[in-house]
Amino acid sequence: MGGGSSSKSSTSSKTTYSKTTTSNPYVTSVTDNNGTTTTLKDGTAYKSIYDYMNKNMDSLLEEYRNPNINSATNQALLQNYTRTLNEESRKALENSIINPLAERNMLRSSAATNLYSDLSKNMSDNIANYTAQLLANSQQNTGDMITLLTNAYLQGQNAVNGNQALSLSTSSGNATTNGTGSTKSYSYGM
Question: Mean pLDDT lowest for which of 49-53, 71-75, 89-93, 153-157?
């Protein structure tokens, strides 16, 4: 019978990432052995957009699919239009018709009533037309708003991704690696 020998080697290493915090005006990233965690900073536009999109995207998509004159946006636009129309109409009526006629003592109460009645009908027609146009444009306006918000949201995500990459790179550069190795040899023979 013959003899022989064998050997067995094993090595192991462990990389330890130093805790690294990387910040820019919008986000803060912390990298350690558990990975990288990034948070948007409070009070920034990115944080506001991120929170708004996460809270309201369902209702925005619903408003896009089913335009409604009672939406908050459409009601605000309609109220603003109505307020402006009322003020401009009042000024035009007073300055262009009532005041000049009153200065010449040419205005009777029935004539003033007719002027107000005509103005009221004209204003009602204008509001009805504006409401119809507003509803017709609602889907496009909502789509445009979703696009703008989504683009801003993605810019925030780009800031997050860039900061995470920088944090991970910095932490990797600061990492330490400890290794151990062993060799066992066996001889056998006769």
Answer: 89-93
Average of pLDDT values for 12-28? Answer: 84
Which range among 20-24, 32-36, 49-53, 163-167 has the greatest average pLDDT? Answer: 49-53
Tens-place pLDDT, residues 60-95:
999 899 998 888 888 999 999 999 998 888 888 777
Tokens in use for 50? 């991120």
- The torsion region of residue 42 among left (phi > 0), alpha (psi -120 to 50) and beta comes to beta
Burial of residue 163 (CB within 10 Å: 0-12, 13-18, 19+) is buried
- Residue 36 corresponds to which amino acid? T
Q: Which contacts of 143-149 are long-range, i.e. CB under 8 A and separated by 24 or more positions?
A: 143/64, 145/60, 145/73, 146/60, 146/61, 146/64, 149/49, 149/52, 149/53, 149/60
Distance CA 138, CA 132 (A): 10
Q: Strand order of the sheet with strand 20-23?
A: 20-23, 27-32, 35-40
